[in-house]
Amino acid sequence: MIIQLSSGQGPAECELAVSLLFQSLVGEYPDLKAVSMKEGSKAGTYSSIIAETEQDLSRLEGSVQWICRSPYRPEHKRKNWFVDISVIPECEQTKREAEIRFERFHCGGKGGQNVNKVETGVRLIHIPTGITVTSVEERSQYMNKKRAMEKLELELQKLERQARERQENAAWKEHSRIVRGQAVRVYEGMGFKLKK
Fold it and tell me: Residue 104 has what pLDDT?
């Protein structure tokens, strides 16, 4: 699962809360690893952290409240800071050998007597996506299969690039949206203690 911790358009205090929340979650879920981190306006703060884990953290999706006087502006009256936890849709892994159907066929054209006697043409079908590629350029089935795999790989890479772009767009939309109130979790003080 991929999650994003975000300060949205919040000030430096919210960016600090993102950093503290990430440290707290790593303590709770040791396999949580940062995939990308966007630094905040102050040292050690982050406006956004995208992380992945094998755990299902969907119950944490929503806003997180941090109750603390500002460590940057002691005279500031505000002491409630909000950050967001969002689940980001994952890119699907598109290439697996078991998901590719291999077909052979006779192909006409150059290649002498071998062409019509042996099934040298190759068709590969990627079952999950329905992408089909063929190769008839080479004289041997082995070489055509190799050529077809290269073509399929290019098509799957294009698909994965598009999926990554959609994922990044989803992450950016979530970064801009924070709902205050109805916090899924509340933390208190500079020690960032979870309020029960």
Answer: 86
Low-confidence ranges of the chain (pLDDT < 70): 90-98, 107-118, 171-181
Class of the domain covering 97-163:
alpha beta
Q: Hey, where are the domains in the chain?
A: 2-91+178-194, 97-163
What is the number of H-type helices and E-type strands within the chain? 3, 10
Q: H or E segment at 104?
A: strand 100-105
- Closest alpha carbon to 84 in 157, 144, 192, 3: 3
Q: How many residues does the chain have?
A: 196
Sequence-ordered list of residues with C-beta below 8 angstroms from that of 15, at least 6 positions apart, any chain: 7, 40, 41, 42, 45, 46, 47
pTM over 0.70: no
